[in-house]
Amino acid sequence: MTVQTRDVALPVAVRRLRARQAAATIPVVAALLAFPLVAPTYAQSVVIEVMVFAIFAMSLDLLLGYTGLASFGHAAFYGLGAYAAGLAARHLSDHLLVGLLIGLLVAGLGALLIGALAIRSLGVYFLMLTLAFSQMIYAAAFKWMDVTGGSNGLAGIPRPRLDLPGLPGPDFGSAAQFYYLALAAFLGSYLVLRRVVRSPFGRTLVGIRENEVRMRAIGYDVWRYKLAAFVLAGLFAGLAGVLHAYYNGFVSPSDVYWTTSGLVMIMVIIGGAGTLIGPVLGAALVLVLQDVVSTATERWPLIMGLIFMFFVVAARGGIVGLYETLARGLRGGGWKS
Amino acid sequence: MSPEITLFVIQLLNGLAFSMLLFLLAAGLSLIFGMMDFINLAHGSFFMLGAYVAFSLVAQTGSYWLALLAVPLAVAVLGVVLETGLLRRLYRRTHLDQVLLTFGLAFVIMDVVRWIWGADIRSLRPPDLLTGAVTFGPLIYPKYRLFVIATGLLLAALLWVVHTRTRLGAVIRAGVFDREMVAGLGINVSLVFTVVFAFGVALAALGGVIAGPFVGLYPGMDFETLIFALIVVVIGGLGTLKGSFWGALLVGLADTFGKILLPQYSLFMIFAVMAAVLLLRPSGLFGRATA
């Protein structure tokens, strides 16, 4: 028997805060929309990459930050989406919807299967199982040369077409066109995920994170909620993978290697787990830092590792947490306000 | 001896050698987790450090035996510094935080090693005493690998004696079972933790020194070995020495024979084995279901 939560009307203060937040995002969205008109192609490609990883990171945040499920194998669904879309685009049709649907389908099914097997375990064992499954997919991508190209990767993925009835559609060949596609996907993902986490379903996930035993005692089917979160996260990771495949025209097994799972985890933590905007900021910071640092010095992993360790020890809420602490301090009244 | 049996014995010995290496890593990892409830993803990094530092030491002094004794001690000192300075702050925090911190640490160590020693593949020469092969009729087998097996079994026996017959071992076993009670009995738990950690790190570094001539030194050896060690620990059960030993045997032999019998699936197989064990026995072969 599941308990239905009432959709409580939000108090005025929260509604006002949200209205302010919404207003604050308008200039940001406007800037994002106008970006390709003023920025060089290289900058656009950086932002595209950030947006793709932002979707990937937000999906992991749903699992890690909101449900408290530490999955070390999230790259599996990113990779599944990428390879499926890439293969579909190369062998079936280069229509956007074909690759997109197939990529999402494969990623979602993978998440359903892996989730059903792994979610029964807790803690370390869950971590290890998700790692194991993603490594199995890596192994498959690596060895299955005829299909995936093995260590050489899957190349020659065409940019998708989007033919609308009656109109000649864009072919997303230029950076600017792909930029808008990625932007649409990113904004769409953000809005959908935000709706999810604010819904009763999302609140239930947080409850599971906070005290799973209690949720079960109240009557929630915890396993099912976890699985739903896992599949949803897998779908969005798959979406990121599809975009990645289309943008780069190339998918390699390293996209499914555990270091990719680790990297996206770093983005979530540095940005701030359990907030949706945190992983976006984390993705931006990590990718930009990687770009900047790796041109200046080879010691990118060292610097990244140190920054990451700092965040884990000293700034547990990530960038968002730091911002909130600062905002609270500035609002007057010292640390306790 | 027929050629098939010879081949089988050779593979069996290869598997045993690999298992012994895995055991050295898994034992430390498992006990640290069992005792302090601390997951250390940087454990493979200590293994790698052991190998690389030994490489330099042997290059400087020419003595492998010196490296075998000194390097684990040196790396253990580093381990103690890290534990007291940094890692012990996270004993009370969630496993996820521990995973993240040690993952970052592993990244850092990996890059430092690359900085100092470069990314080329190196090899560590075994001592003259152990080069060459022994012959048992048609069976020719490298001396060094027999040394690896012997050392591993010896250490396993030693660890077993310490674990079951000494006071320290009793404290460790009690600590795995109920940490608070041990502290309540007046035992300096922090000190025991540091000792256990140092010992685990020393074992990993020793594994690295031993593995050097066997496996070679290359970037990525830390994480590759770590994943195998984690698999062993999880299969065997966290916090048990017995689990580390039998888990290491299972994984080492499965990997070696898997590579021969099903080379297409070798990478895949070991994860499948782990997944299968976990699905049947969620706490591993010998682990206890901890709260």
Describe the structure.
By secondary structure, chain A is mainly α. Helices cover 74% and strands 0% of the residues of chain A. Chain A is built from 14 helices and no strands. Chain B has 291 residues and is mainly alpha-helical. Chain B contains eleven helices and two strands; from the N terminus they run H-H-H-H-E-E-H-H-H-H-H-H-H. Chain B has helices at residues 3-36, 43-61, 64-85, 95-117, 143-165, 167-177, 179-184, 189-215, 221-236, 241-261, 266-280, and strands at 133-136, 139-142. Chain B has a two-stranded antiparallel ribbon with strand order 1-2. In chain B, a hairpin with a 2-residue loop joins strand 1 (133-136) and strand 2 (139-142). Chain B is globular and about 60 Å long. Chain A binds chain B through residues 64, 70, 72, 117, 120-121, 123-125, 127-129, 131-133, 135-136, 138-140, 142-143, 258-259, 262, 265-266, 269, 298-302, 304-306, 308-309, 312-313, 316, and chain B through 33, 39, 86, 89-90, 95-97, 99-101, 103-108, 110-112, 114-115, 223, 227, 230-231, 234, 238, 264-265, 267-268, 271-272, 274-275, 278-279, 282-283.
Brief account:
The complex is a heterodimer of chains A (337) and B (291). Chain A has 337 residues and is mainly alpha-helical.
Q: Which key phrases capture this entry?
A:
heterodimer, A: about 325 residues, 14 helices, B: mainly alpha, 11 helices, globular
Give the SSE layout.
The complex is a heterodimer of chains A (337) and B (291).
Chain A: H1 12-38, H2 41-66, H3 75-91, H4 96-118, H5 123-143, H6 145-148, H7 175-198, H8 200-210, H9 212-218, H10 222-248, H11 258-271, H12 277-296, H13 300-314, H14 318-330
Helix pairs in contact in A: 1-7, 2-7, 2-10, 2-11, 2-12, 3-4, 3-5, 3-10, 4-10, 7-8, 7-10, 8-9, 8-10, 11-12, 11-14
Chain B: H1 3-36, H2 43-61, H3 64-85, H4 95-117, E1 133-136, E2 139-142, H5 143-165, H6 167-177, H7 179-184, H8 189-215, H9 221-236, H10 241-261, H11 266-280
Antiparallel strand pairs in B: 1-2
Helix pairs in contact in B: 1-5, 1-6, 1-8, 1-9, 1-10, 2-3, 2-4, 2-8, 2-9, 3-8, 5-6, 9-10, 9-11, 10-11
